[in-house]
Amino acid sequence: MRVDVYLSDVLDLFHRSQIAHRSVTVAVDGAPVKLSRRLRAGQLVTVRYTTPPPVHAEAQPVGFEILYEDADVVVINKPRGLVVHPGAGNRSGTLVNGLLYHVQGLGERFGDQVRPGIVHRLDKDTTGVLIAAKSPAALDALARQFAHRTTEKRYLAVVTGMLKGADATIDAPIGRDPRHRQRFAVNAPAGKPAVTRYRVIGRFDRRTLVELRPETGRTHQLRVHMASLGCPIVGDAIYGRSSGDDPLLLHAWSLRIVLPGESAAREFVAQVPEDFSTRLPQALRRRIETSYAPAQPSTEAPRTEG
Hints:
Elements: H1 3-10, E1 25-28, E2 31-33, E3 45-48, E4 64-69, E5 73-78, H2 95-102, H3 106-110, E6 127-133, H4 136-147, E7 152-160, E8 167-171, E9 174-176, E10 184-186, E11 195-204, E12 207-214, H5 221-228, E13 250-257, E14 266-269, H6 274-277, H7 282-290, E15 303-305
Parallel strand pairs: 6-13
Antiparallel strand pairs: 1-2, 1-3, 4-5, 4-15, 5-6, 7-12, 7-13, 8-11, 9-10, 11-12, 13-14
């Protein structure tokens, strides 16, 4: 086993992609070695590396649509291309920066300005409903529901190919792909349980419009599960073949959750973005625009922040 593989896969110190940023040096039995060096059983490995400075998020105006807001939470329709929280390569212009700007005193309440109020995440190019908390108490109330899987999430996706059947359940564990550490795969070593239900809404032009209901929340779960069926989500450059003409056609359509201090669940629905809907036949577009409305709509009209 190579040294770099040992550091990332066995010791789980960090991904191989982070090694260059950590100024990693390795010695085997006291002698410096390259990261490509192969290890043998019984050797003593000494690792030295630096810890990158913490990311400090600043308040910035960031554009996003607010679907609902009260004293405890803010529900947004995340636009495509918006990163949820700062990290390597994305230190500004994230949703967290926008929340710090919109919710005065948010960072101070949490004592951590890297991910204040973030309950769950959506990938950068995934659009749709996302809820954030305004206080630690609200965060705990929301996070418990995600942890106990009592929330209900529905996504819309267009997948490549004619997906078979009308509805089905995908029950396939997901773990990091041992051959491509930036990707995830079904039935990977040490994979965690992952379940996705899907319902076919319509088929057109060798594509299928589906409603996806994840029962677990693994990284890239919907993208990995659909690719495992041979029908990757359109525009997915990691798990499919992106032509560059289509964006990632994956939209977090609705979220059903109990808000802090309430006993009944509310359902929040995010309108499908134009660059998604215009890629659908008119009949399918009308169906999703008219057939799905929130069971308990918010009392406030949507507005745009930033």
